[in-house]
């Protein structure tokens, strides 16, 4: 048998080949073209209702603002970004379900997890399973990225961390205590995981930075407690020279308003870590001068023009000040865009590889840059400081910046102590 | 537990004054909410699970009226009347249809309105918390009594609540309206047969209960932040107060609220990690010793 083809079969082969080519031209090439222009869908599980709705609203605003700018500049090789937001109502199981749904049903290739800590841990486990790229933008709980057992190769964290805050806060408070002779301290923080962890870390480091400090009392109001009278009268009786609190948002506003009419701040120096965020600063109608606070977010700190311009653009667009959550989400998008441009890809593995150890220029950096630390996939070098309040803008006129060398030294020791390093 | 601190507090006049007045203040607002709850239950025999939402509405009405008028008196009166009017409409249109129904149906109606009102607040006033701030009239240094500290605004709050408590007691026990309300509570059919419009009585009592909750919200707004859903925690405490004082008894609500306020105030010194537990323990003891509450009528 000959294997040579007859002229007829050659002709048929040619016709078939031509047909296939035509089909490819008609169907295949546009298919490739459509894939290139297919929008990049980014899923955002967050909280848009309930008492902490502002977390989700301001996170979504910051992401939206960043995406508009990215799309206007041409996107990623012509591919525009689409944001798909889902409300978990603050429930961790819904946060996990939403994340799964965003990836499996909505076709999201990347997750920006703007959940609080409770939801973020649930999202982390979904990311572990689905292996998409994820950036946490609101959970401050240190173990999320510090604990190797919890860590996931494609999950990053772009949030201020509890341990960083504790070190900076204690260093600042310890120095003020030395200068003013504040030895008797008391704490008043919300009675749940964040309040307990934050306060115990602060006290631990305060005693390291100033061993003369003595804790003379504690008050633990409930989360979302309306009436702080019993706590305030206890503080009045204990007569501490300084008071540390990690109450936040409406709870802090109520506490400050109720304490003011007792004249508490005339006899005690308040160190309220969560005061200097516009949502809180603008809500307190009679903001006492001289409250010490960390800079959650201020348009005047970092002092660069870019930070102020970002805050002004946000306010112009949303008729509201940005929050601490807003800058964290904006920074996450800056990292994501940088990694996308570097890899020209949305592959989770490639983006994760690019993000590890990546340093970018950012208005939110202490020195104008922020780094995604490779070893635990979390940000360092962001602007963090403390100062004292005045009742009107700029609210915290002078900020004492946190020293990142000190932060990293103490953080390394803390990681060893916790068995994370 | 810190018995030493508690004993030391009882040995100091300033501590006793500060803690006792602190307890009174917390108790006074609780009384206003619990009194309305108790009044409605005592007369209409329905548990108004939506009462906390009326407190929330009072706070938001007062916030808005204060911002519009700049006058806190107008804000307080307007908020109380506004919530009273809302309560009247709610009672006539919805609650009156479930009188005598299963308690689960009443609960369902109330719970539905809790969710609706929480969402309405978010739509009208926004999801973010708000704060009104202290009116200028009360921006004075606190008064010192025997070394204890008492803010000027809280003096006003205690005063106005005592006046309301006295007026309410007088209305219920000494006036013809009070007699009609008590008669309608005991036997609405017979009261109706005597030519009294019991629907009007029930509507009036519900509106009065709503006004008291609205008044509490308006009085709380200078020192408490406003947020959708803020009525829930005060509702729980109000139920504890009414259980301790006796369901249906306004005097019981006053005593129960003050006791809860004092237990919390001194409990935070002696039992800092068990203040809430102490409140529930106190309620349990009252229920064991006197199941109908301190001022409740035995059945």
What does this molecule look like?
- The complex is a heterodimer of chains A (421) and B (299).
- Chain A has 421 residues and is an alpha/beta fold.
- Helix content of chain A is 49%, strand content 17%.
- Chain A has 15 helices and 16 strands.
- Chain A has a five-stranded parallel sheet with strand order 2-1-3-4-5, sandwiched between helices. A four-stranded parallel sheet of chain A has the order 7-6-8-9, sandwiched between helices.
- Mean pLDDT of chain A is 91; it is low at 1-5 and 20-33.
- With 299 residues, chain B is an all-alpha fold.
- Chain B has a domain at 30-230.
- Chain B has helices spanning 3-10, 13-44, 51-69, 72-93, 103-125, 152-174, 176-186, 188-193, 198-220, 231-245, 250-270, 275-289; strands spanning 143-145, 148-150.
- Chain B has a two-stranded antiparallel sheet with strand order 1-2.
- In chain B, a hairpin with a 2-residue loop joins strand 1 (143-145) and strand 2.
- In chain B, helix 2 (13-44) packs antiparallel against helix 9, helix 3 (51-69) packs antiparallel against helix 4 and helix 4 packs antiparallel against helix 9.
- The radius of gyration of chain B is 20 Å and the shape is globular.
- The mean pLDDT of chain B is 92.
- At the A-B interface, helix 2, helix 8 and helix 9 of A face helix 2, helix 6 and helix 11 of B.
Concise overview:
By secondary structure, chain A is α/β, with parallel strands linked by helices. Chain A has helices at residues 7-37, 53-72, 92-104, 117-130, 143-146, 162-180, 193-209, 229-238, 249-261, 264-267, 278-283, 305-318, 324-343, 348-355, 404-418, and strands spanning 40-46, 81-87, 110-113, 133-136, 155-157, 184-188, 214-219, 242-245, 269-272, 276-277, 292-297, 359-361, 369-373, 378-380, 385-388, 399-401. In chain A, strand 6 (184-188), helix 7 (193-209) and strand 7 (214-219) form a beta-alpha-beta unit.
């Amino acid at each position: 048998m000959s294997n040579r083809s007859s002229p007829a079969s050659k002709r048929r082969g040619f016709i078939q080949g031509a047909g296939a080519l035509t089909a490819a031209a008609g169907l295949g090439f546009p298919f490739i073209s459509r894939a290139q222009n297919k929008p990049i869908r980014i899923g955002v599980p967050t909280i848009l209702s309930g008492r902490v709705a502002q977390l989700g609203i301001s996170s979504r605003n910051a992401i939206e603002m960043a995406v508009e700018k990215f799309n206007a500049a041409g996107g990623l090789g012509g591919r525009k970004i689409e944001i798909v937001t889902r409300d978990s109502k603050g429930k961790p199981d819904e946060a996990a379900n939403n994340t799964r749904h965003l990836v499996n049903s909505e076709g999201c290739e990347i997750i920006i997890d703007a959940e609080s800590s409770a939801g973020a841990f649930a999202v982390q486990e979904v990311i572990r399973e689905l292996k998409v790229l994820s950036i946490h933008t609101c959970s401050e709980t240190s173990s999320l990225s510090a604990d190797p057992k919890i860590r996931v190769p494609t999950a990053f964290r772009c949030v201020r961390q509890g341990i960083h805050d504790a070190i900076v806060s204690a260093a600042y408070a310890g120095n003020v205590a030395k200068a003013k002779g504040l030895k008797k301290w008391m704490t008043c923080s919300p009675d749940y995981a964040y309040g307990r962890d934050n306060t115990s870390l602060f006290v631990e480091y305060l005693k390291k930075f100033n061993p003369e400090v003595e804790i003379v009392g504690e008050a633990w109001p409930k989360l979302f407690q309306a009436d702080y009278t019993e706590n305030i009268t206890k503080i009045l009786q204990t007569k501490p020279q300084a008071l540390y609190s990690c109450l936040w948002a409406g709870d802090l506003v109520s506490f400050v308003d109720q304490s003011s009419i007792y004249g508490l701040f005339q006899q005690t120096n308040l160190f309220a870590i969560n005061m200097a965020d516009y949502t809180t600063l603008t809500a307190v109608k009679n903001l006492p001068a001289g409250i010490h606070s960390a800079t959650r977010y201020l348009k005047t700190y970092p002092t660069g023009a870019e930070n102020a311009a970002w805050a002004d653009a946000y306010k112009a667009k949303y008729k509201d000040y940005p929050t601490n959550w807003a800058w964290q989400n904006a920074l996450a998008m800056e990292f994501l865009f940088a990694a996308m441009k570097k890899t020209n890809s949305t592959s989770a593995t490639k983006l994760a590889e690019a993000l590890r150890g990546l340093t970018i220029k950012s208005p939110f950096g202490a020195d104008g840059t922020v780094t995604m630390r490779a070893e635990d996939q979390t940000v360092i070098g962001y602007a963090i400081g403390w100062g004292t309040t005045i009742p009107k803008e700029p609210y915290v006129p002078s900020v004492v910046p946190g020293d990142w060398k000190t932060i990293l030294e103490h953080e390394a020791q803390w990681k060893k102590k916790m068995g994370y390093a | 537990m810190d018995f030493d601190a508690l004993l030391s507090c009882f040995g100091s006049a300033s501590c006793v004054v500060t803690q006792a007045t602190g307890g009174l203040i917390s108790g006074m607002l609780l009384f206003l909410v619990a009194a309305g709850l108790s009044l409605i239950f005592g007369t209409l025999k329905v548990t108004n699970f939506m009462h906390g939402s009326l407190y929330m509405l009072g706070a938001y009405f007062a916030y808005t009226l204060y911002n519009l008028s700049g006058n806190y008196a107008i804000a307080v009166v307007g908020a109380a009347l506004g919530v009273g009017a809302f309560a009247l409409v709610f009672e006539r249109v919805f609650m009156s249809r479930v009188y005598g129904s299963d308690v689960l149906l009443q609960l369902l109606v109330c719970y539905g309105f809790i969710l609706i009102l929480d969402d309405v607040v978010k739509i009208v006033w926004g999801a973010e918390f708000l704060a009104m701030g202290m009116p200028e009239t009360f921006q004075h240094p606190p008064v010192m009594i025997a070394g204890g500290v008492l803010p000027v605004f809280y003096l006003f709050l205690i005063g106005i609540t005592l006046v309301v408590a006295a007026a309410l007691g007088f209305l219920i026990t000494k006036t013809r309206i009070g007699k009609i309300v008590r008669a309608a509570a005991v036997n609405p059919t017979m009261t109706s047969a005597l030519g009294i419009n019991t629907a009007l009585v029930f509507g009036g009592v519900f509106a009065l209960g709503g006004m008291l909750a609205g008044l509490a919200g308006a009085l709380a707004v200078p020192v408490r932040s406003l947020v959708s859903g803020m009525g829930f925690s005060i509702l729980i405490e109000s139920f504890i107060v009414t259980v301790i004082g006796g369901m249906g008894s306004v005097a019981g609500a006053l005593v129960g609220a003050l006791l809860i306020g004092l237990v919390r105030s001194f409990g935070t010194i002696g039992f800092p990690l068990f203040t809430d537990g102490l409140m529930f323990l106190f309620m349990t003891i009252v229920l064991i010793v006197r199941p109908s509450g301190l001022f409740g009528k035995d059945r």
